[in-house]
Amino acid sequence: MIELNGVSKSYNGIRRAVDNLDLTIPDGEIFGFLGPNGAGKTTTIKMITGIIKPDAGQIRINGTDIAADPIKAKQRFGYVPDSPDLFLRLKGLEYVSFMADIYGVEQELRNSRIETLAKRFDMLDALGDTIQSYSHGMRQKIVIMGVLVHHPEVWILDEPLTGLDPKSSFTLKEMMREHADSGRTVFFSTHVLEVAEKLCDRVAIINKGKILFCGTFPQMQEHFQSHESLESLFLELTKHE
């Protein structure tokens, strides 16, 4: 579960990137976080993950306040950033093993998890190569593997499908569904609204730091008395903001 209560963040003391945000993402749900560029999505995600501090409000990950106990909170989630260009000089296996070290995953368990993840993402033959030799999609996959190797309860994914080939994209969406169906939480941002419409249990649309809508896609259609696609409703909702 992810809980945000009264969360705000301003830059330069003037522009409020996130404005008094209240949001609850319960267990057992794939939650899509949608918004145009500059809407406050990345700022919100960086506050949830503890990369930046909010000016006001409280953020809890599975009941743990990330400001009061950041180590405990960060042990509970895995975070895929919007850029996979990390630790480029390491080999793929070195990077995933490094992530397993950080989270204290035992050797036998990590070996099993790395093999399982590598098979699902077709990365077994690439683990011995340096990350800088990888394509963008392969870098994305190795970052995802590093995030998932400690089997976090909460997944926080910022544009995770970017650069993935169709098979790997399908695999990740399948894994997201499995994770939510096992009673855990998946929070992800995406610009691909067709994916959000098909995959998400609920979505929130943010613009100029405020939540314009939060709920299921059928609830959105009912609210706006429309049978249009999520993409059409999103564009209509954000065009005048």
UniProtKB/TrEMBL annotation:
The ABC transporter domain, residue ranges: 2-233
Gene3D superfamilies (UniProt xref): P-loop containing nucleotide triphosphate hydrolases (3.40.50.300)
Superkingdom: Bacteria
SUPFAM superfamilies: P-loop containing nucleoside triphosphate hydrolases (SSF52540)
A UniProt-annotated Pfam family: ABC_tran
SMART domains, per the entry: AAA
InterPro entries noted in UniProt: AAA+_ATPase, ABC_transporter-like_ATP-bd, ABC_Transporter_VariousFunc, P-loop_NTPase
Protein name: ABC transporter
Lineage start: Bacteria, Bacillati, Bacillota, Bacilli, Bacillales
